[in-house]
Amino acid sequence: MIIKSLSDLRIFTLKVGKNIKSKKCSILLYGDIGVGKTTFARELINYFQKKNSQKLTNVPSPTFNIMYEYDLKKFKIYHYDLYKLVKTEEIEELGLLTNHQNDLKIVEWPNLIRSKIKDKIEINLKYRKRDSERSVTIRGYGRFRNFNVNEI
């Protein structure tokens, strides 16, 4: 799939959000710096805030904090950025991803995660020759194995 603009990324993100029927999900975002991972996360978090009649908030990159939490009353969203972590053990020591099993987790830079995440959606964003364009691949596992990319 090709994303040609920020508007296209917003539309793609909204369609992903509408197709997530269970909030017990991890969304793993892969891609280089600046490719759109945080923008995707921001749009998805704001989508769920709006859907749950919550005030839209600023969604900064959690690069320095590692995690931000968004309480939507019915469920929580945990937005992780693991870019600064260097060892797999750091994820375990901080208890990242082991808690919050019943909530939505969005993880940027998930490369260090070694534990099996059963119910997940992996999204890979890649630069294309045109600066404004991205190629996107999406794949579901576990409960999301039938996540239909064609509907998106």
> Helix and strand succession?
EHEHEEHEEE
Count the E strands. Answer: 7
- Overall structural class, as computed from helix and strand content, comes to alpha/beta
User: Based on CA inertia axes, which overall geometry fits?
Assistant: globular
Q: On the 0-100 scale, what is the average pLDDT?
A: 86
- What is the alpha-carbon Rg in Å? 15 Å
Characterize the main sheet. Answer: 7 strands, mixed
Residues in helices, as a percent range: 10-25%
N- to C-terminal distance: 9 Å
Strand content: 25-35%
Please give the count of helices.
Answer: 3
Unreliable segments (pLDDT under 50, ≥5 consecutive)? none
Question: Order of strands in the sheet with the most strands?
Answer: 1-7-6-2-5-4-3
Give an overview of the whole structure.
This protein has helices at 6-19, 37-51, 88-93, and strands spanning 2-3, 25-30, 67-71, 76-81, 104-108, 120-127, 134-141. The chain is an alpha/beta fold and 152 residues long. It is globular.
